Structures are given as C-alpha cells and as structure tokens.
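Thread amino acids onto this structure.
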C-alpha cells in the first residue's frame, strides 16, 4: 500500500510528464510552422488525488488545421 506522500509524488510526476509532453509538442509543431494557441494541460484532469494529466490540444482556426494537415501529409509522404 502506498502512502499519501507517495501518491502525491506520483501525481506530481504525471503532471510533470504532461508538461514535458506539451513543451515537446509545442516545439515540434513550431518547427514545422504550426501553432496551436490553446495547447495546454487540461486543468480539470489534474484535479483530485490521482490526476490523469491530459494534454488539451484545444481549438484552432481552419487555416491552422489545414497547415497542420499539410505538414502531417508531407511527413507521411516523405517517410513512405
């Protein structure tokens, strides 16, 4: 059985992992000219004793969605 302190440390680790994921995703998208303005950690998912720490990709304009899809399609074509 884990202690309350251990559970808090595990929860903090999940939140840190989500923060790192957001930073890596933001940098990767910036590297191909895409910015998701609402990209963040979902604050509700971090609440409670055992947070799930979900990444919220947020909403974006049609232009941003098209730019993202173009970059993904180009990468897929390049990798084929």
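Threaded sequence (80 positions):
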């Amino acid at each position: 059985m884990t202690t309350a302190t251990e559970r808090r440390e595990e929860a903090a680790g999940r939140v840190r992992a989500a923060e790192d994921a957001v930073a890596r995703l933001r940098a990767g998208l910036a590297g191909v000219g895409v910015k998701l303005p609402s990209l963040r950690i979902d604050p509700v998912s971090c609440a409670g004793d055992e947070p799930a720490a979900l990444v919220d990709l947020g909403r974006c304009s049609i232009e941003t969605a098209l730019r993202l899809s173009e970059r993904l399609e180009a990468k897929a074509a390049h990798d084929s």
